[in-house]
Design a protein that fits this description.
11 strands, 10 helices, 306 residues, Isopropylmalate Dehydrogenase, 2 domains, 6-stranded mixed beta sheet, Rossmann fold
Length: 306
């Protein structure tokens, strides 16, 4: 089981390089992260975009493009994204990464009916955190993509995230559907849905994990919290949740940004619900976040190939 991103990187190295297609690759932080991934032995990059601009940035970063790189010269942004995603669609690459283009343009290529990575199911987002003081990786979902998930959406999100966690070596991840309280209250629909997700898990309709909700955040991640709450010690999750399922994008995004801004952490994230792992990072994300996201995608890609 990977408990840190260093362990995750080691896990990927043992699986061999995964072919990484980068859409509109003329982006300095992206190329820097891709080069680190290549040096770590986890990615074989295919850079799709304006070749002259890619070479200019590579020269600035002292990247030798003759060492393990392929370049597909497509100057137009939309055409480059289409060409890059087609490589993954056709099986010529195993991961797809956003470069120097707008998120909506990138997602348009992911959802392209002819050459995209659609599965017919909703897309979601998983963020993985390594946080000091917590002895495991935490999987947060959905913090960036699905605004107001329905009960059925939450079931699907759990299934996606469990697959990611299992790819990282967590055989039976513990899933905490979060709420403000731990008891079911008909006036708080989030608690009702959390209890229903727990029932579906117990009935075998949500597999390969342990679901226990509704749970407050403290009881989900802090074992000592159980000492102060009646009956908490008898829960299936007592401060040892692996997956935090948020009730909506507001709760998830607020927690995500609070952690990133106020704590010294490592994180990476990928889109889920696609035919292959999709690395959708923000332009404000650090090179380390981009590298961690590539590593996460590579682990998932390795799992899909088994």
């Amino acid at each position: 089981m990977s408990k840190s991103f260093d362990e995750l990187l080691s896990k990927v190295k043992s699986c061999g390089r995964k072919k990484l297609s980068v859409a509109v690759a003329q982006d300095e932080p992206v190329l820097e992260a891709v080069e680190l991934a290549r040096k770590e032995g986890i990615a074989a990059p295919v850079l799709v975009g304006d070749k002259a601009k890619i070479e200019e940035i590579a020269k600035k970063l002292s990247i030798d493009l003759t060492q393990g790189y392929e370049i597909v010269d497509v100057a137009d942004v939309e055409e480059a994204a289409t060409a890059a995603v087609k490589l993954v669609h056709d099986g010529d690459a195993e991961m797809y990464m956003k470069g120097c283009l707008e998120t909506k343009q990138f997602l348009k290529s992911v959802l392209n009916k002819e050459v995209g990575l659609r599965t017919g199911r909703p897309l979601s987002h998983v963020c993985v955190f390594e946080i000091p003081g917590i002895d495991r990786l935490l999987f947060l979902t959905d913090v960036a993509f699905m605004p107001y998930p329905t009960l059925e959406d939450k079931k699907i999100i759990i299934e996606y995230t469990v697959d990611v966690a299992r790819a990282c070596g967590i055989e039976m991840p513990k899933v905490a559907p979060l709420a403000a309280v731990e008891v079911v209250n008909d006036k708080m629909p989030v608690t009702v849905e959390a209890a229903e997700l727990t029932r579906l898990n117990e009935a075998g309709e949500i597999k390969n994990c342990i679901v226990d909700g509704p749970l407050s955040m403290d009881l989900a991640i802090d074992p000592s919290a159980a000492e102060h709450k009646a009956g908490a010690k008898d829960r299936k999750i007592v401060g040892d949740a692996d997956i935090l399922l948020f009730p909506d994008i507001h709760a998830g995004n607020l927690v995500y940004k609070t952690i990133v801004r106020l704590a010294t952490v490592k994180n990476g994230n990928i889109l889920t619900g696609t035919k292959a792992p999709v690395i959708l990072t923000s332009r404000s994300d650090t090179v380390e976040v981009k590298l961690n996201s590539i590593a996460l995608a590579a682990v998932v890609a390795s799992s899909l190939s088994k």
